[in-house]
Specification:
Blueprint lengths: L1 H16 L3 H6 L1 H28 L8 H26 L10 H6 L1
Length: about 110
């Protein structure tokens, strides 16, 4: 589930990256939230992928270290959920002077 949320936040970032400068000014708070959140999400994603690669296909239960890593990452995911929700619920604002093709991509 986290990987899907991470991809969704990345899609918001890509949408904002495609906006003309006039629209970036209207989305300042969203851009600041993304710049704050994305490094943490990337770190969590990388750690989850490493942990998954360690246990994938291994029939034994998690080691105590792996359990501790997993619990740590779950804690971080819970802490960033409100910020993720704010970003995913936010409206990307376009400006009226932009051409229609740019607005349709939003």
């Amino acid at each position: 589930m986290f990987l899907v949320l991470s991809d969704s936040v990345g899609n918001v970032r890509r949408t904002l990256d495609e906006l003309p400068e006039c629209d970036e000014a209207r989305n300042t708070n969203l851009i600041v939230d993304l710049e704050d959140l994305q490094p943490r999400m990337n770190e969590i994603r990388n750690r989850l992928m490493r942990l998954y690669s360690q246990v994938n296909g291994w029939p034994a239960p998690f080691t105590s270290d792996q359990n501790a890593q997993f619990e740590y990452l779950v804690g971080w995911i819970e802490r960033i959920q409100p910020q993720v929700r704010r970003i995913l619920d936010a409206d990307v604002i376009g400006c009226g002077s932009c051409n229609e093709g740019a607005l349709e991509r939003l």
